[in-house]
Amino acid sequence: QITTLINHKDKPKRSDKTLQAIQRVGQAVNLAVGRFVTVGEAIANENHELKEEMSVACIEARRAGETIAQLTDVASLDHPESDSHITIFTDKTGVVKAARLLLSSVTKVLVLADRIVIKQIITSRNKVLATMEQLEKVSSFQEFVQIFSQFGNEMVEFAHLTGDRQNDLKDEKKKARMAASRAVLEKCTMMLLTASKTCLRHPDCESARINKDGVFHRMRLALEQVIEIVTDSRPNGENEMAPISIYSGIKEFKNKVEGLRENLYFLSKENLSTMLEVILEHTEDFTDSAYTSHEHREHILELSKQAKMELEQLVSVWMQAQNQKTKGVMEDLEVAILKTCQCMNELKREVHSAATSLAADLLKYHTDHMVLKALKITGVEGNLEAVAEYTCKLSEQKEQLVEMCRLLRHVSGTEPLEITCIHAEDTFQVTGPQIISAAETLALHPSSKIAKENLEVFCEAWESQLSDMSLLLREINDVFEGRRGEKRVYLSLPRPGKHNANLKALKPVKLDTEEQAKIAKLGLELHLLTSDVDSETEKWEDQENEIVQHGQGMSSMAYSMYLFTRGEGLLKTTQDLFHQAEIFATEGTKLASALHALSDQVRDDDKPLLLLEAEKLISMCKQLQITAKASAQGKSATFTKVDACILKTRNVMTLLCQLLPLCYKLLRKNKAGNGCLKPAPPWKEDRLRTGTNARTPERRVDPFGIKSLENHVTNMTFLESK
User: Fold this and answer.
1) By mean pLDDT, which of 3-17, 114-128, 204-218, 606-620 is the weakest?
2) Which CATH number fits domain 1-76+88-113: 3.40.50.80, 1.20.120.230, 1.20.1440.230, 3.30.450.190?
3) Tell me, which fold does domain 246-359 have in CATH?
4) What is the pLDDT of residue 395?
5) Residues in contact with 557: Cβ distance below 8 Å, sequence separation at least 6, in sequence order
6) Half-sphere exposure of 81 (CA within 13 A, CB side)
7) Which domain of life does the UniProt lineage start with (predicted)?
8) Quick check: helix, strand or coil at residue 413?
9) Least trusted range by pLDDT, from 142-156, 159-173, 420-434, 491-505
10) How far is it, in rounded angstroms, from Cα 240 to Cα 176?
11) Which of 318, 373, 451, 666 is most exposed, with the fewest beta carbons within 10 Å of its own?
12) What is d(CA 288, CA 91) in angstroms, rounded to the nearest whole number?
């Protein structure tokens, strides 16, 4: 609005329409400023230390808004008595000055408000730290229960504040670091509860004390990292040293090499040689690793040698081109550039293959959690020798997984994924010894229920991280293949003019940045639900089962719709999205038919529930189809329709998360022994967790751990009774 006022053209003749438009804009600016300042003044009244600065900035903003309103009060210009009245036409510089004052004062208000938010987070962190110190020193259960209840409430507040801050962060790298720190705090809250209870029950047990101290230490580090991100600072003024990956090194190296086409003199040959040396040094992480296959090691060494030779040839031709820019020399330079880049691409492909194949093998090998199960059994038996044997095996497993994370970081492709790999490495590095100390405590006190519960909690954290690694591996592969997280191409994706005769008449519309921000939370929920559905379908041995295929198809389409909310993927316009929603609804209706067919195979007492869920699905899919087909004119109406389509898709996916495990259970019950399904995981904890997710998918949709923190607090009465 301000830009409109500043840029309006001075014309000798001004129509009434122009005058009224200018006046409306000026009044709108003044009203907007008034609303903004009212919020600023309310914030000032609640924060006395910044009240004076905030009040001054608000007064300046209000004054500037009123000045703009006065200068744009041009409706009376037609009257001769108002000739002396100063307006935008007689004093345009006054509007410019007022606009500058307004923008600077509004910026000041925003900066002060931001300082207040940061202060709130720091204050909340300090409360948590103070209560943690009290928790470390308690000596009775009753005192612990009271203080932990307070601690839980403070952690919930901290989770809310940092969750909002994480959403506001624009830097993807900081956002990933914040998410990692907050994930640590969420998991450690439960660990702190059971580890502290174990220590109170067995005060003379050294392994229990070590276990508890490890949790407190990790929580303090995570709290410190959150504050570093929020305040954009490092302790003792240190600069953050970002770990360099092979991918980022190759990308930068290729950019420099290709830059020689435009400018032969913008860097030295020494710079280029140093960059390649750094990349090849990092490849030693692969060639020196005991877990890299002989074949991959040989290929990496060969490509490293070839890269040096290609660079030598490139430098030779490059130096020649600096002296004589003949056609022949420039053609030789182009060939050398292409060969060097091709060699680097092959090296990149080889290290990616080495890292991802190792990760896939390790994750598959450790998916049965045999070592964890053995530790639980031998711990309850009090068999110290067996526990020692299995802790050695867990330490070996930890070293394998840590090495896997280090290698994956090199090929992750994006900074947020690099940070996720680093977080995973830290988690395995820390959780391994904590499981060992918890198992030793249980072996020393085999009849202790709390020691057993404590070991369960740490084992669950390990299993959860392994599960997260499967998702991370898939995302890394997606980035490498250029899909940026896109799933397989679904054949019914819209193509202009193919599915709809009226497509050409419709103007393709994309979501702008503001709309993407509004719909981001809904998109994230959709993303998490697709992961849940994929986890459920992967349990089925018979991947050709009709229910599985429809579920996978719906998950794939929902994922494309999630990518649309981020401005990515194959759905480029809102019309693409609406067509995809129609196809998604049709697929859901087909799934409902498959459920009806399944109901004929199940026992009579199971049939009503299945038919009820199928009818729910049909109803929801019909609603989605009606919404997707409804006409929408104008930007606001189109965005409302987009929002409604994604919301209804999310609701269908939520129902799908409940349907798949139900069908799995019914088929197991009715087809036991015919081998069409995998046997259910034998350990009790995984079944409980799967059941929880299936019945209440919102627990997965809560990405900041607030729900689980609140549950810890709610369950304190149970702890007290024990």
Assistant:
1) 3-17
2) 1.20.120.230
3) Four Helix Bundle (Hemerythrin (Met), subunit A) (1.20.120)
4) 96
5) 490, 492, 580, 583, 584, 587
6) 0
7) Eukaryota
8) coil
9) 491-505
10) 15
11) 373
12) 74
